[in-house]
Write a structure and sequence with these properties.
Chain lengths: 151, 151
DNA sequence: GCGCACCTGACTAAGAAGGTCAGGAAAGTC
DNA sequence: GACTTTCCTGACCTTCTTAGTCAGGTGCGC
């Protein structure tokens, strides 16, 4: 139930790209801006490219840019590109697991968990992230003081 | 963003205990009922015991039982007992991470993710799980057909 | 005191996480 | 066309986690 460094890095780099005005941004600049090891970031950007989220050009004046408008890319897209499906149980998607005995309804619980994860991740776009206004669903969740308490 | 085998096993074993009428249940019976390797399960039960979720007695007529009524133990309690804090980012709690540059609002997104995870896991008790009636929040999420779609 | 069932630490094999290294290949510049 | 720049790619590495197994120890009840 944790977010890997890789996924965190990927979203942060994508946010920098979303905020960049025009023109390709060098990997090095992204690495500097977000304090990410350059060579590791390059691997991540390659995965984002294969997933069709960013595009790139080599050589002088080269760099990376978003393949689509920032308001058409969600955080879920970015996370899935580097981590694979969100919310697997024992490496299988929850809808394909069969529970026995008194654990029968556990499947529905995991399905609900996944749905609630998606409710956030699929509704925040990169454009939202770099603006000063996150979607209402996030604002609501964040405004509960309870949400900030460790546990 | 995945649920480990251990956490899944722990919840399933706890569900069996919640459903058991009176008296200690042997580890072997739990292992059989939920198809969990016995020796692995014993380690898990030990952790649940240390967390104060189950109690145990050795010897003939020994076994495990819940330390509290089933409606006072949530799935979150069980998962945390074996996996530690739910929803960490890069091994740190989201409220303690500082983001720079254009990723500034990412913290709020992770906080919202965690809040939504908790909204499910902290509201489903073991009693709910073994009954035929999950809490309304879960029923609502599960009833959206979208929730069952792979992605 | 004997068997039953939990308790506990040590161990292990495989995989993932989080990188680093070394070189290749395209794009632009002089 | 040589040279620089920047992305592209595979190989490698170290540490940690996962998902167990093994071997015994310890307390409880009869």
């Amino acid at each position: 139930m944790r977010v890997s460094a890789k996924a965190d890095y990927a979203v942060r780099a994508a946010a920098e790209l979303a905020a960049a005005e025009e023109g390709p941004v060098k990997g090095e600049r992204l690495a500097d801006a977000q304090d990410i090891p350059l060579q590791f970031l390059e691997h991540i950007l390659l995965e984002l490219k294969h997933a069709g989220i960013v595009r790139a050009r080599r050589g002088a004046k080269g760099g990376y840019w978003l393949a689509k408008p920032a308001d058409e890319i969600t955080i879920a897209d970015v996370v899935r590109a580097v981590e694979g499906p969100i919310a697997h149980v024992q490496s299988s998607p929850p809808e394909s697991i069969e529970y026995r005995g008194h654990a029968e309804h556990l499947q529905e619980v995991w399905i609900a968990v996944r749905a609630n994860l998606r409710a956030v991740l699929e509704h925040v776009t990169l454009a939202d992230l770099v603006s000063d206004h996150l979607p209402a669903i996030v604002e609501n969740l964040v405004s509960q003081p309870d949400a900030w308490a460790a546990r």
